[in-house]
Amino acid sequence: KILILSNPYPRQLDLIDVDLSKKKKQILFLSNIIYSKGIFTFLDASLQLLSSDKNVSIRIAGVPMSDEFMSKVDVKLKFDKYYGDLKVKFGDRIKYLGGVLGDIKNELFNESSIFILPTFYTSEALPISIIESMRLGNAIITTEHNYLPHIVQKQMGFIVKKNSSSAIAERVIELFNNHTLLHSMQLYNIQKAIDDYSPANYERGLNLL
Q1: pLDDT digit string (tens) for 111-139?
Q2: Are 43 and 29 in contact (CB under 8 A)?
């Protein structure tokens, strides 16, 4: 007997009050800082977004790591240069927080409005960060890569082409200019996460085995 179970979000997320009216005009990248996770595409999009709207803020979390495209040392050097230039130009509107866990990570998800993962990571499947961001009320922007177009439905957010910072920026602007659309995606994602990725749902699946 074969039963496919998706990883659940952490149980403590069900204890967090998600108030969409208190969310900031904030975009979050939370992943390992890896070339193929699309960090540099994200930073290019960040420059466009911070330049076009003075109310937008960017938060980045994760630690540099290597992949088949770039070593950890080279990733860190390139990231530090990109981020440093953005920091000089935009100040606290962009913040890199390093690796985050627990309450700090959950607060980042809870205060942000849009979660972006422009990945083309070879073995990408369904990142737990997408599930966590859904449960805490974020619209999703990710890439046309592996299974992601089959997972992220149009009610949840947008699928964009890989390595396209302009496509990311366009979709973010669309969402921030259309509060009704953004709000509907956020609400849908909260319920979708509860219905499909809750710890209780995972335990029910285990009991069927």
Answers
A1: 999 999 999 999 998 899 999 999 999 99
A2: no
CB 145 within 8 A of CB 119: yes
Q: SS3 for 80? A: helix
> Strand pairing partners for 114?
27, 139
Cα–Cα distance between 133 and 32 in angstroms, integer?
Answer: 15
- Between the CA of residue 147 and those of 101, 115, 130, 153, 155, what are the distances in Å? 26, 18, 13, 11, 17
Q: Strand, coil or helix: what is 115?
A: strand
Closest of 157, 191, 155 to residue 174, by C-alpha: 157
For residue range 15-62, what is the model confidence (pLDDT) as tens digits? 999 999 999 999 999 999 999 999 999 999 999 999 999 999 999 999
Q: 45-51: which pairs have CB atoms within 8 A and are 24 or more residues apart?
A: 45/116, 45/118, 45/165, 45/166, 45/168, 45/169, 45/172, 46/86, 46/94, 47/86, 48/165, 48/166, 48/169, 49/169, 49/172, 49/173, 50/86, 50/89, 50/90, 50/93, 50/94
Q: Is 122 exposed, middle or buried (0-12, 13-18, 19+ CB in 10 A)?
A: exposed
